[in-house]
C-alpha cells in the first residue's frame, strides 16, 4: 500500500530555504527498520513519522539517514505544518507529540508555529582535545549540553566563514557541535551553525533543538527573554525564541515543497 509523504522546508517562509524534512503520517506504527530505510532513501537531515493516538495526540519519531534521534526541532515544526495542511489540527489548537524526549506541544496559528520545548542548559567546560582544531577557529568560550558542544566564537563573520574538518568532528563523543556569536546583522540577536557528522549530517541547515541551549545561553548574556536567531548555513533560516522558565518556545514558519508516495 502506498505511503504518502510530504517534504517541508522548516524555519523559513520561502521554498528552498530553511531545513527540509520529510513527514509521513501513518495509520499505525511502522517497523523501526522500515522507518530507517525510508529515512535513508529520503536522504534528508530528518524524516518524521507520526500516527494518531487520540484527539490532539500523536506519536512522533525522527530518523536521520543513519540513526534515530531523540529530539528534532525542525522536523517537529514540519510535522505540525503537515497536520495543519491535512486538516488534522485547527489553527490555535495545541497538538501533543509523544516522543522519546517526552511530551512536546505545538500550536499553528495559520502562519507561525510555536513549539514548546524543555530548555537545555549548557555548562561551561574545558575544550575537548582537538575540538577547536577540528573547527579551525579559536573559541571565546566552550560549554556542553546533554547533547552537544556549544562553542562561542569571536563574531558573526567567524561563524559564517568557518570551515570545519568534518572527519575530525565525526569522532567526537557528542551528537553535534554548534558555533555561535552575537549578531552584527540588524534585527538579529545571535547567529549559529550546527555540525553533526557523527549523526550522518555534516552541517544541519537550521537546528531547532540546538536552540534549546542557544536561547538560555544568549538570554543570560543579552538579558533578553525574547530574541531573533539566524542560522548561517548555505540555505539559511530564521526563528524566534522565547524563554519561559525552564521552557523554550521555538517559533517559525514552514512551506511544503513536495508531495509524493512511497510505493516500495
Could you list some keywords that capture this structure?
globular, 264 residues, Diaminopimelate Epimerase, Chain A, domain 1, 18 strands, alpha+beta, 2 domains, 6 helices, 18-stranded mixed beta sheet, 42% strand
Count of individual helical segments = 6
CATH third-level topology of the largest domain: Diaminopimelate Epimerase, Chain A, domain 1
Main sheet: strands, sense, barrel: 18 strands, mixed
Derived from helix and strand composition plus strand pairing, the structural class reads: alpha+beta
What number of domains?
A: 2
Q: Note the gap between the termini.
A: 8 Å
The string of secondary-structure elements, in order, is EEHEEEHEEEEHEEHHEEEHEEEE
What is the 3D form? globular
Please tell me the overall pLDDT.
95
CATH architecture verdict of the largest domain: Roll
CATH superfamily of the largest domain: Diaminopimelate Epimerase, Chain A, domain 1
Unreliable segments of 5+ consecutive residues: none
Q: Give the C-alpha Rg.
A: 18 Å
The helix fraction, in percent, is 10-25%
In terms of DSSP E residues, the strand content is: 35-45%
The overall strand count is 18
The first-level CATH class of the largest domain is given as Alpha Beta
How is this fold's topology laid out?
Elements: E1 3-10, E2 19-25, H1 32-42, E3 46-54, E4 57-63, E5 68-69, H2 73-85, E6 94-99, E7 102-108, E8 113-118, E9 123-124, H3 131-135, E10 141-144, E11 148-152, H4 156-161, H5 166-169, E12 176-182, E13 190-196, E14 201-204, H6 211-222, E15 226-231, E16 237-244, E17 247-252, E18 254-262
Parallel strand pairs: 2-3, 4-6, 11-12, 13-15
Antiparallel strand pairs: 1-2, 1-18, 3-4, 4-5, 6-7, 7-8, 8-17, 9-10, 10-11, 12-13, 13-14, 15-16, 16-17
Amino acid at each position: 500500500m502506498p505511503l504518502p509523504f510530504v517534504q517541508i522546508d522548516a524555519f523559513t517562509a520561502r521554498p528552498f530555504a530553511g531545513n527540509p524534512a520529510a513527514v509521513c503520517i501513518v495509520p499505525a506504527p511502522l517497523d523501526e527498520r522500515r522507518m530507517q530505510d525510508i529515512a535513508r532513501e529520503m536522504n534528508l537531515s530528518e524524516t518524521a513519522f507520526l500516527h494518531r493516538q487520540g484527539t490532539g495526540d500523536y506519536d512522533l519519531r525522527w530518523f536521520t539517514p543513519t540513526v534515530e534521534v531523540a529530539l528534532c526541532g525542525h522536523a517537529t515544526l514540519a510535522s505540525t505544518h503537515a497536520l495543519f495542511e491535512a486538516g488534522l489540527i485547527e489553527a490555535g489548537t495545541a497538538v501533543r507529540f509523544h516522543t522519546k524526549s517526552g511530551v512536546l506541544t505545538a500550536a499553528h496559528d495559520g502562519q507561525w508555529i510555536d513549539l514548546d520545548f524543555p530548555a537545555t542548559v549548557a555548562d561551561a567546560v574545558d575544550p575537548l582535545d582537538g575540538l577547536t582544531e577540528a573547527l579551525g577557529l579559536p573559541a571565546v568560550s566552550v560549554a556542553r549540553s546533554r547533547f552537544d558542544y556549544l562553542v562561542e566564537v569571536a563574531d558573526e563573520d567567524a561563524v559564517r566563514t568557518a570551515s570545519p574538518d568534518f572527519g575530525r568532528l565525526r569522532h567526537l563523543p557528542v551528537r553535534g557541535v554548534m558555533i555561535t556569536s552575537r549578531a552584527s546583522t540588524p534585527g538579529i540577536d545571535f547567529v549559529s551553525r550546527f555540525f553533526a557528522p557523527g549523526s550522518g549530517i555534516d552541517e544541519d541547515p537550521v537546528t531547532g533543538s540546538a536552540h534549546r541551549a542557544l536561547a538560555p545561553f544568549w538570554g543570560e548574556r543579552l538579558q533578553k527573554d525574547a530574541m531573533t536567531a539566524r542560522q548561517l548555513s548555505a540555505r539559511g533560516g530564521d526563528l524566534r525564541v522565547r524563554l519561559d522558565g525552564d521552557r523554550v518556545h521555538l517559533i517559525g514558519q514552514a512551506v511544503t515543497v513536495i508531495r509524493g508516495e512511497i510505493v516500495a
